[in-house]
Amino acid sequence: MRPAALAALALLAGAPAPAQLPASGNGVAGSVVHVQVFRSPFDWSQPWRQEPVSGASGSGFLIDGGRILTNGHVIADARQVLVRRPDRASPYVATVEAAGHDCDLAVLRVADPAFTKGLRPLRFGPLPRAGTRVNTYGFPLGGQDVSSTAGIVSRVESRGYVHSGADAHLVVQTDAAINPGNSGGPVVQDGRVVGVAFQGFPGADNMGFFIPIPIVRHFLGNLEDGRYDGFPDSGLSTASLLSPAYRRERGLPPGRSGVVVDRVAPGGTAEGVVRAGDVLLSAQGYAIADDGTIRLGDARVTFEHAIDMLQAGDEARFSVWRNGKEQAARAPARRIARYDRNRNRYGVAPDYVVYAGLVFMRLEMELLKTIGRGWPQTANRDLVWHQLFREAEQPAEADREVVVLTRVLRHAVNSQMAFSPPVGVERINGREVRSLADVTQAFSTNQGRFHTIELEGDGGIEALDRAKAEAAHPEILRQYAIPQDSRP
Amino acid sequence: MRFRKTAGRNPIALALLAASCASARPPASVATAPHAAAPVLAEAPVPVGNGPLRSGVVSVRVTGQDWNWRAPWEKQAPWTRTVTGLVVPGRRILAASTAFGNPLLVEAQKLGSDARSVARVELVDHEGPLALIAVDDPAFWEGLVPLPLDERAPGEGAVAILRWQRSGLLDSYPGALRQVRSGRHGLSQTSLLTIDVASSAEGLGESEVVVAKGHVAGLVTGRAADTYAAIAAPVLGQFLAGARGGDWRSFARAGLAWQDLTNPALRESLGLAPGETGIRLTRVLPHGSAGGVLKPGDVVLELGGSKLDPTGYYEHPLYGRMLFALLFTDGRRPGDTMPAKVLRDGQRLELPLPLRAMRPEQDRVQPYVYGRGPDYVVIGGLVFQELSRPYLASWGDWTRRAPPRLLVAIDREPDADGAEPRRIVLLSSVLPDTANLGYQELRDLIVERVNGRPVASLEDLRQAFGSAAAAFHVVDFVSGQGAVRIVIDAAEADAAGERLRRAYGVDKLDSETRSQAQ
Q1: Alpha carbon distance B92, B141 (integer Å)
Q2: How do residues A311-355 score in pLDDT, each as one tens digit?
Q3: Average of pLDDT values for A260-272?
Q4: Is any Cβ of chain B less than 8 angstroms from the Cβ of A295?
Q5: Backbone angles phi, psi at B251, to 5 degrees
Q6: Whole-number Å distance between alpha carbons of A211 and A173
Q7: Within an 8 Å CB–CB cutoff, is residue B401 touching chain A?
Q8: A314 labelled catalytic
Q9: Rounded mean pLDDT of chain A?
Q10: With contacts defined as CB-CB under 8 Å, which chain B residues touch A264?
Q11: Same-domain check for residues B105 and B191
Q12: The domain spanning residue A320 has which CATH number?
């Protein structure tokens, strides 16, 4: 859940093609395609509208089943997707068959069978080892022909995926050049795909990252039932046991290692089988070191990777040190749906209610982002607490939704209100507000002369004259060009 | 930012409000000096001649040293500030400056003399900030004559701002009065009668003397945009009278947060009659003047016989529209009673407010700590402190840089009604030592419990550590900040003391200890 320090590779559309290296001739290049998209994201500050159309481009490659694999961020919020073979001049229209924005992967399909004719689907290889050579293929800065670069695998680690902003998975770092437009292109070793190029540091040299095959396989495996569900969440907050005092206090014998469990999230995989205070010794049979890592080939990555490799419903296996002995803990892997509110959202139309010029939305990251980058310091403190701290401090309330009065569309009926949005809503007309449906209900069932809105925090309140609000409501929708007063 | 305003609640919102009041509010009606009337602002200062101004203004040099709130056993580098002082009756000097917080040496100097006389701070009130300074050397007072104080704040016209230069000259800068308002100065939490003076002079704010028509109109304390704020002469007179009487009780503080009632539908729904106005309280500090009398939800209609408008302003007989917080200090002092008329649960009540000053310790986050160092405890290299404004100041622009959980704690969690507010106790930093292996990078975490006991003050923490007979000390933090629990070995922590002294120069492991710790 920590904010990722990486910025996604910017996708540049319509950039003039720089001098290109010829595609290497091992047959891989022919299966790499250029992906062009036209996107129109939703506007979370005016949830009834969308942003103007902008273009972007990236790369993709043919895999089995006539599918094209690319990055989630290449096709995010796309309204039209065009793919082009390097050996053809004209693009084909593609559809997004599935997107996993939590792992920045997507599958495209072209209806026209002519597109794949003569193309060879690329096959997947293993997780590459540090120090081995890899080649990248793609369309950096656009361009007509496939570009290829070569480098070595620098390291294998767990890292934040910038596209979702809230997920960390296995990544591989390489010094092969990965530039804007490479996104979605294959990284190849010995003729097999070992990863999908996806992100880099804007300022760093010779540091690019690709999504390794275990993550790709998890994504594709999850799609087998025709629906993408995402990764399970262990729900564990752990602290490293680098303190010898804490190890002794927990009674962990010499030679054993693990991390101490600080918190078990409601609804997560470990709920009910692992407890705060347990020392987590292993996950899926991987021994956990005192810093929380497990051994993966030559690399050390966080134990969460072992849980990452499960699909929801698979059995998760932990062992913990509790009451002076080792105990096994097993539970079906579960995904925590509420964590979606910590993620960047793509292709999701924001829900809202507008009433008499007051705009209500659910609290989530996309809404806070409209305040600006500094929102943890500048936003209303109650909202910050709900978003960042409530789950830890009041786990029983973890799933609770917070409704936010996000803005006031000024009209004589509301323009004298004196609060500063966005601010959390506690009650409307005496009714506790825990969902947007509550907002609609509270306004529509009130028979009193006034609507009363109780705001969070210092307990400020506001009121609307009900008759005037009813009359103003359609007028405000018309004046502000709002097609619907709520979504859904 | 108009919803949650505060009159003397906590240091945080207050600083923000002070700025927005000055700029966002329409100027008070009587007090506006049109821009065109201002003198040409690019004028150079002129030396003051031989008139009475010369003999009424002196220089006060203050050498002081503040504690290092990031390493609370140390002091920072010493500083020297030169403050302009006003000669007042009784052979005293009056100054409005925060320089008298942690002074080590105070010296006074007058025009035409190269000698500095040792002075002493006789009375200081950080809620001004105001200081009364005595100079015992009779020779110093020869030729010095107090300037007359204005009995009321002048609303408009040209003024001279007198500043003592380091070179020993007294300069006069032209300025123009902008408005009279209610304002806060320095780190003060109380609202005082304030004049705003426009001037092109740079770098004022150390008690420069504002003179209008031969009378002292105020002392400059700071700047907002191109306007200087000065504590108005009537406040100075109030302070001097209290000092003379030997019973100065500081300034009364409202201790309220409120919301405006500009929305007619809201007024009506709350039961206000047509034409009736006021503000709705959202928070009442237990130790402020309204504590125990007014309650959140009350609509305050009148204070001290003045009707409040929907934004909390009243009509001052001399100065026009003023924010209600001024009523607590303008012509009133702690111990006085001020009537309040409130609407509560449909009833109109007349309630007497016993006006009270608040000590800085009565704020959950102390607005300032002067005259002593930070309270702290070092155990096994873990450094614990209470969150305070000077600690926050170590971030610089802390409202944008401090960890979000601290900002939440400051603004969101209310003061308890108890005798002492619940403090925010922090693990402020860790001095790396073998006793704290694994925790070296922790900092600024809010402590919830130590050895199972809840911690609401540093004293609680001392007792909780002291009470443990077990082999380990267990510190639990408010969950969600990263670290949740840390464990250190009690014997190792005890043994760390000598190492910490040698490695980090911590001569006292606990600020309460007079001599060396065990």
Answers
A1: 9
A2: 999 999 999 999 999 999 999 999 999 999 999 999 999 999 999
A3: 97
A4: no
A5: -105, 145
A6: 9
A7: yes
A8: no
A9: 92
A10: none
A11: yes
A12: 2.30.42.10
Task: Let me know whether A147 and A286 are in one domain.
Answer: no
Q: Do B381 and B344 fall within a single domain?
A: no
Task: Name the domain count of chain B.
Answer: 3
B251 burial type by CB count under 10 A (0-12 exposed, 13-18 middle, 19+ buried)? buried
For residue A205, indicate whether it is catalytic.
no
Please check whether residue A114 touches B, CB under 8 A.
no
Instruction: Point out the catalytic residue in the list A77, A104, A233, A438.
Output: A104
Question: What share of chain A in percent tops pLDDT 90?
Answer: 87
pLDDT tens digit sequence for A391-437: 999 999 999 999 999 999 999 999 999 888 999 999 999 999 999 99
Residue type, B411: D
B52 lies in the same domain as B189: yes
Both tokens assigned to B62:
């203050």
Q: Calculate how close chain A gets to B237, using CA atoms only, in Å.
A: 37
Cβ proximity of A350 and A478 under 8 Å? no
Domain housing A22: 7-225
Q: Is A447 on the interface with B (CB under 8 A)?
A: no
DSSP A279-344: EEEEETTEEPPTTSEEEETTEEEETHHHHHTSPTTSEEEEEEEETTEEEEEEEE----GGGGGGS-
Is some CB atom of chain A closer than 8 A to the CB atom of B444?
no
Buried residues in A453-479 as b, exposed as e (16+ CB within 10 A): bbbbbbbbbbbbbbebbeebbeebbee
Residues of B in contact with A460 (CB under 8 A): 3-4, 259, 280, 282
pLDDT per position as a tens digit, B121-170: 999 999 999 999 999 999 999 999 999 999 998 878 999 999 987 666 78
Residue A436 and residue A378 in one domain = yes
Identify the active-site residue in A73, A163, A169, A305.
Answer: A73
Both B466 and B422 in one domain: the answer is yes
Containing domain of residue B310, as a range?
256-354
B135 token code pair:
């100079």
Report ipTM (2 d.p.): 0.89
Question: Does the beta-carbon distance from B262 to A458 stay under 8 Å?
Answer: no
Annotated active-site residue A104? The verdict is yes
Q: Indicate if A312 and A362 belong to the same structural domain.
A: no
Q: Are residues A149 and A218 in the same domain?
A: yes
Whether A239 sits inside 8 A of B268 (CB atoms) is no
**B279 interaction partners in chain A (CB closer than 8 Å):** none
- Exactly one of A31, A59, A148, A183 is catalytic; name it: A183
Give the contacts of A28 (CB within 8 A, at least 6 positions apart). A122, A135, A137, A186, A188, A191
Q: Kindly report the CATH number assigned to the domain that includes residue B130.
A: 2.40.10.120
> Which chain A positions have a beta carbon within 8 Å of B488's beta carbon?
243, 245
Residue B399 inside a domain? The answer is yes
Q: How many CB atoms lie within 10 A of CB A117?
A: 8
The amino acid present at A127, given as its one-letter code, is L
A363 and A448 both lie in a single domain:
yes
Question: If chain B, 518 residues long, is cut into consecutive pieces of 10 residues, what is the mean pLDDT of each piece?
Answer: 36 28 31 34 57 85 95 95 95 95 94 88 96 96 94 90 79 93 94 95 93 95 90 97 94 95 96 96 94 96 97 96 97 96 96 95 92 94 96 92 93 71 94 96 96 95 87 94 94 94 93 57
How many residues are given for chain A? Answer: 488
Same domain, A119 and A252: no
End-to-end alpha carbon distance in chain A: 28
CATH number of the domain that residue A378 is part of: 3.20.190.20
| B469 has a chain A CB within 8 A of its CB | no
Q: Classify A475 as helix, strand or coil.
A: helix
A452 by Cβ neighbours in 10 Å (0-12 / 13-18 / 19+) ranks as buried
The CA angle A33-A38-A43, to the nearest 5 degrees, is: 140
Q: Is the pLDDT of residue A3 over 70?
A: no
DSSP three-state, residue A206: coil
